[in-house]
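The data are quoted verbatim here:
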Amino acid sequence: MTERTTTGILAAVTVPESEGRAIPDAATREVIGYAPVHTTDDLDRAIAAARAAQPAWNALGHEERSRILHAIADEIEANAEELAELLSREQGKPLNGPNARFEVGACAVWTRSAADTPLEPEVVFEDGPARAEVHYDALGVVGAINPWNWPMMIAVWQIAPSLRMGNTVVTKPSEYTPLSVLALVEVFNRHLPEGVLTAIAGDREVGAAIAAHPGLDKIMFTGSTATGRRIVESSAHNLARLTLELGGNDAGIVLPGTDVSAIAQDLFWGVFINTGQTCAALKRLYVHDSIYDEVVDTLAEMARTTPMGGGLDEGNVLGPLQNEKQFDIVARLVDDARSRGARIVAGGEPAPELGPLFYRTTVVADIKDGAALVDEEQFGPAIPVIRYSDVDDAVARANASEQGLGASVWSADPDAAVEVARRLEAGTVWINNHGAINPQVPFGGVKASGYGQEFGVAGLKAVAAPKVISR
């Protein structure tokens, strides 16, 4: 295989300045390259090509499609460093820690998982000669809309199972991180027939057109609850099936008697992975009176000492906010908390010496429900720590949010943790960690955090049409 340089892969997915839109380095704001500006006409052509390519792709069968997915996973790994460097520059996450290299590695893992997960016909009724089976067929063409926080990994969550099940895919990256997804699709397309996978790097008009397009059989979207609601409305015209992974304001509850030193690392990264820019990151932390001060002080010390800076520096594990809009949201929420009398224990201000969009890792104590930092999704490096004295009250407050993506319970008593976990309204409840995902374990939200599941058998079924054969 021809060896490529970083310049080479970037050149493969960028266009001349006169034809494209400038994409900045998240840390320095210097231009990385120019992304193509696709239109709704380009979208129409991509969907038509996907529709034409789908029968032959489906006809290859599961074994051959799985073989191709394994070849793609090998290709991702062969180009991992190049992809990680591009991702780090465009999205902002550092190379090390649970960040860019981790994300690219996850792309290979999830691609292989989609290839290897068995999905056999299910016998749902049998009585003498009578028998009913459920088979799972391709849907047709899948439209996938990706976010900017984990652009490559979430794109793979949408693309790989769809391809495995015999669908073709048109994927739209976020306007903030198009180059990362274009590069990933370029790697995929070294092994795919023409028209099977196309990336359309358009604006919000193109995203809206995907939601309403009559040529799509399935829409997958990861992003805000507000945009998810608009997609539901638009898709009513063509009745496309939906998988929506929407916003989260995940709560964590630390029970009395918990050994704070034992949970500190997992608790910190449950909050601050990807500098807090993760849908299923821990966004509100409820801590019992008896260990409240110890938890606050431990998190604050880790916030002050965990290295933050430019992503290509091997020593950093926290990066900038990816874009100005998100930076402004975090600053507004922290300023509001300060104005309400909350105690800023660590951070609480920008870090301009690091770059324009860096915000210091922030721990806010002595704050209550009703403050914007608690009630709204901050999606950045700031955690409100809320005191409680009664577990039932903490559960009620955790459930008061309209969102229900994830939640967590922290305790030295596994039985007590499970009892609380069963009462929390969330698609996933973790015990003594937050946000850990597995390609074989279903993942999805409840309430306003969306519907439908990804990963494993459930994820394959989500991009397939069930067919009952009765005899």
